[in-house]
Amino acid sequence: MDNLAKNKFTEDYVENLQRITLKNFDETSEKDKYDALCDTIMERINQEWRASKNKSRYERTAYYFSAEFLIGRSLGNNLINLGIYDEVKELLDELGIDFEAIEDYEDDAALGNGGLGRLAACFMDSAATQDINMYGYGVRYREGIFKQSFENGFQKEEGDSWIKDGDGWSIRVDSDSRIVNFRDQAVKAVPFDMPVVGLENGKVNTLRLWQAEPFEEFEFDKFNNFEYDAAVAKKNRAEDITRVLYPNDMQRAGKVLRLKQQYFFVSASIQDLVAKYKRYFSDDLRFKNFHNYHVIQLNDTHPNIAIPELIRVLVDENGLEFEEAFAITQKVFAFTNHTVLQEALEKWPIDIVEEVSPRCLEIIYQINDLLVNNFKEKGLSETEIDPYRIVIYDQVHMANLAIYVGFSVNGVAALHTEILKDDTFKHWYEIFPEKFNNKTNGITPRRWLVYSNRALSKFITEKLGTEDWKYNLDELKGLEKFADDEDVLNELWDIKQENKKRLATYILENEGIKIDPESIFDIQVKRIHEYKRQHLNILHIIYLYHELKKNPDMDFYPTTFIFGGKAAPGYFRAKAIIKLANEVARVVNNDPDVNEKLKVVFVENFRVSYGEKIYPAADVSEQISTAGKEASGTGNMKFMLNGGLTLGTYDGANIEIFDHAGEENNYRFGATVEQLNEIDQSYNPRGIYQTNMDIKDAVEALVNGELDDNNSYMFLDIYNELINPQDGSRGDRYFILKDFEDYKKTHEKINKDYRDKLAWSRKCLMNIANAGYFSSDRTIINYADEIWKIDSPNY
Ligand code: GL2
């Protein structure tokens, strides 16, 4: 901004502040100041937003359908992408306003559970920055993922009404409202559009989130009749649909309301696309060119009911024949799978599908018939066809629907895609090999570096002598030339130290725990799942605690273990893992024999905005899932980009991180998928427990009174799963004990290596320098290029 623009900004800002509050400047609150800043920025975005919309109207566009968009806060990110972050901070400073203080008035838009939802948000940022036409379509949940707190170490959940004080980043577009018809109910779908600003390129894409509303606020007759509850019953029933995000990560909900949410946003979105197409391509009555302008990417199975819905709209509302509509549909849909865990692959009982949309169920049967005939022609018998059926045993298989109809199926990391082809969807791969492809995930460097790690960002620009890396992250490779430059390595070390100090201060304020910024920060933040093996990490901490108790003078570099993440409210064992971590933290942190050397913190309510403070401060990134189970992971990339070294299994995108940054610059441990497959049947966790005393002592602590679970039997539950299975299985499904010894040894190596500051800093540098591949810009360009066939000016 030149001086004129700066003055204008300040003028607009003060004027907005007074206009929306009717107060004099010095009477306004910090919240007022935050609100006015949103307004001022939205005004600036508006013009480019309209221009981008107008320009893309007659161009091929991708539509990213996702039940989740885990956005976080928008203020800082928008300022970064508009290229006015530092200047606005300065201008506010001149007005006596502390930017960081007002930033905290923004609630995270936490409309997602974890990686899958955050990926969608990163893709939005990258598409805009790479000038790719992409609309996001989703749900405007009034309650995001619950807020987590700990009571006596147990997780407590509380609602997260993120828009109760308004939402400065959305525009309600009443004129684009649609009607969504369920079997027993019709509701209004009202779109709220959020701008998605590209990095200083004038491109603004749109994220359109639908909110369910009644047609009438209340029924007057009933009210007059003193039936007050009944008068608003319909309104509540409508609003229920988008009231709350299901907090189950990778767990089928199986509830009518959940399918209603899915159908709700998908139906509104499909109607939206078709209505717009008819407006702008009014002479194409048979939708012959529809597929030339639209490609819909289905983010997991959640939006897959869009497939019959498009056919329904084309056939019932636009007079096409089923065959015509089906042919269009085949050219429009592409499907991304995000997990191989069976409990996540959605299958809907047909009575639920019928209750939501009887017509879609009918169309699903029609598609299923096509499939059966088609496969019979290929020579398959009835039983050979079974694994492909969309409807079988009274259930609709949402993945089968998308794989059969869609033209592309992709996994989210190289190993994951191989597992899909060899195992999960092997039968499909045999018939349609050409549909399968890999798109390794990525993260946006704008939020996860430029914004959240200002010092490192400045360092990179200085060393490379250009800001080009912000658009093309491969340029980071240029940092390698400083790999042996001691001054540069020291500088990098100091940046990490500063970030660690900032996090330590924040943790003291928010968690009430004092940690030493000089200690190794060893961090595991992600949803709590058995397959992610937070309990492997905790058992190892118990082992370390035992060692330090036996020998307080042991040669051990002080380490702080930091955890963060939410457990699904109904996932007992995940909650047990949280309780266990908190209990170990209580014991360790209060024991003066060890607490100079060992600290454990489980931060409350880990979320995007907490992550922005955590990722830049990590020395060690724990990525310790059972090999073959983590489809990709994306937290691993956030740590890497910020110079955290990966302590990881050979799983998901860890493998690609090791490939790019070098195994010598990271810490790989544990069994491979092949090894686990081999021992699967003969695995004997009890045998390991009986012969390895370190493991025995750590596992014993779960039940010998050393740790207190307040009679919840939570620790016994973990113990039983490991070595005393109650269900006749072999126990330790996720191979905790199998990988323990290697994990322990690798930790020992880390503990030694960290003491050589220059060598460690060199590894950090090598990770940063090779993080380019993990930019979601690269990922989205791959989607645009290989699946969507949409031009991006940058490839
Ligand atoms: C996930 C995978 O578990 C995770 O490994 C992957 O990185 C993300 C994004 O592709 O998708 N699948 C899934 O259902 N959730 C994930 O985080 N929630």
UniProtKB/TrEMBL annotation:
InterPro entries: Glycg_phsphrylas (IPR011833), Glyco_trans_35 (IPR000811), Pyridoxal_P_attach_site (IPR035090). One of its GO terms (molecular function) is 1,4-alpha-oligoglucan phosphorylase activity. Its cofactor is pyridoxal 5'-phosphate. The keyword Glycosyltransferase applies. Its EC number is 2.4.1.1. Keywords: Carbohydrate metabolism, Glycosyltransferase, Pyridoxal phosphate, Transferase. It comes from the Bacteria. It catalyses: [(1->4)-alpha-D-glucosyl](n) + phosphate = [(1->4)-alpha-D-glucosyl](n-1) + alpha-D-glucose 1-phosphate. Signal peptide: none annotated. The keyword Glycosyltransferase applies. It holds the Pfam family Phosphorylase. Gene3D superfamilies: Glycogen Phosphorylase B. Phosphorylase is an important allosteric enzyme in carbohydrate metabolism. Enzymes from different sources differ in their regulatory mechanisms and in their natural substrates. However, all known phosphorylases share catalytic and structural properties. Allosteric enzyme that catalyzes the rate-limiting step in glycogen catabolism, the phosphorolytic cleavage of glycogen to produce glucose-1-phosphate, and plays a central role in maintaining cellular and organismal glucose homeostasis. Belongs to the glycogen phosphorylase family. This is Alpha-1,4 glucan phosphorylase. It comes from Anaerococcus martiniensis. The lineage of its organism: Bacteria, Bacillati, Bacillota, Tissierellia, Tissierellales.
